[in-house]
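Narrative of activities, Objective 1.

The group set out to show that a structural description can be obtained from nothing but a protein's sequence at a throughput compatible with the screening campaign. Below is one input-output pair from the validation batch, recorded exactly as produced.
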Amino acid sequence: VQLQASGGGLVQAGGSLRLSCAGRGTSFRAYAMAWYRQAPGKQRELVAAITTKSGSTYYADSVDGRSTISRDSGKNTVYLRIDNLLPEDTAVYYCNAANDRAGVEYWGKGTQVTVSS
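Output recorded for this entry:
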């Protein structure tokens, strides 16, 4: 089972990015999906999350209002779009899949996002 994150890169402040996380090896329909990020010297933090059936979403205050998390169950993929990128958005972004009922959790390897001022 793998989570493959992509879409990171170097972007100027004010720009946008859409990160993708494709799941392989199992269906993630029953998993809550989330994006975390970790900046140099800082702890990993939750950025956004989306539930399974209802598709309810959560956003950290730092990205609320300028980001959108979505999922395409048919493609087994979760997306994170961030607009109006800020230098403080610079981090490695990781996707996460969690099935609390089964007690299973998976992490992707991460994709680097660098925002230049």
